[in-house]
Design a protein that fits this description.
elongated; four-stranded antiparallel beta sheet; binds zinc ion; two-stranded antiparallel ribbon; 6 strands
């Protein structure tokens, strides 16, 4: 686990790792903001900050 600054919560949080098969997503544990999402062997799908890709999975 690593600590990251969440731009939504505006504070440093412990990033949460979600693994779905080959896909790895790192999110904010408090608001669900996606820091980075990537597929093993394929590369980055979504990186935090910009909203070029809205390919996030909302787990609610
Ligand atoms: Zn957050």
């Amino acid at each position: 686990m690593a600590r990251r600054y969440c731009p939504v919560c505006k504070k440093v949080v412990e990033e949460k790792l979600i693994k779905e098969g080959k896909r790895v997503t790192k999110v904010c544990p408090e608001c669900g903001h996606v820091f980075i999402s990537y597929e093993i062997g394929k590369g980055i799908i979504e990186s935090g900050g910009g909203n070029k890709f809205e390919e996030r999975t909302v787990l609610k």
